[in-house]
Specification:
The protein contains three helices and seven strands, in the order βαβββαβαββ. It starts with 9 loop residues before the first strand and ends with a strand. By secondary structure, it is α+β, with helices and mostly antiparallel strands. It has a seven-stranded mixed sheet with strand order 1-2-3-4-5-7-6. A hairpin with a 5-residue loop joins β2 and β3.
């Protein structure tokens, strides 16, 4: 597999809406999503719940040499409570098929950790479906540990799936 020529991870902006929506729909899978597959007419990617300032994007050259969004990570405070401002939560990570297995997710995760530290956060959490072994392995390799499991929390594709809470400190 040829090396992927990536650009530095950057904050999303409003002009990324269409590309992010297309990536999100193309990456949809019961491996990581508890929502139904999106159907037309598609809603805008950005909304009150998911604003550009919540996302970091990775860009890379595709096989044709065109620079495209290769992935995104959504990072938000988990609540609006003042007592919870030290925590950031990953609430979405997607990588385009053509960029998978080439370090894009790891680069996005590391950029999110750095951004959260830079924002004064001291803790990062996320939720991942129990059967999503590739994502769990990535998170574990970057210092996340399982902090809780909700057994059989979701019924997806004909089976019950655990909801796994993972977290890590952002301080040395």
């Amino acid at each position: 597999m040829p090396e992927l020529r990536t650009r530095p991870v950057r904050p999303a902006d409003l002009s990324d809406d269409t590309a992010l929506g297309e990536l999100d729909r193309a990456a949809w899978s019961t491996l990581h999503s508890v929502q139904s597959r999106p159907q037309p007419p598609y809603e805008a990617f950005f909304s009150d719940r998911s604003r550009p300032e919540h996302l970091l994007v990775a860009e890379a050259e595709d096989a044709a040499g065109e620079v495209r969004i290769a992935g995104y990570i959504r990072l938000v405070p988990p609540t609006a409570l003042a007592c919870n401002t030290h925590v950031r939560q990953i609430q979405g990570l997607a990588v385009a098929d053509w960029a998978r297995g080439r370090g894009v997710a790891r680069g996005l995760l590391r950029a999110a950790l750095a951004a959260a530290r830079g924002d004064g956060a001291s803790r990062m959490t996320l939720r991942v479906l129990g059967h999503n072994a590739p994502a769990r392995a990535l998170y574990e390799s970057e210092g996340f540990v399982v902090e809780g499991v909700l057994p059989g929390e979701f019924f997806l594709a004909g089976r019950y799936v655990d909801d796994v809470l993972m977290g890590r400190s952002l301080t040395p």
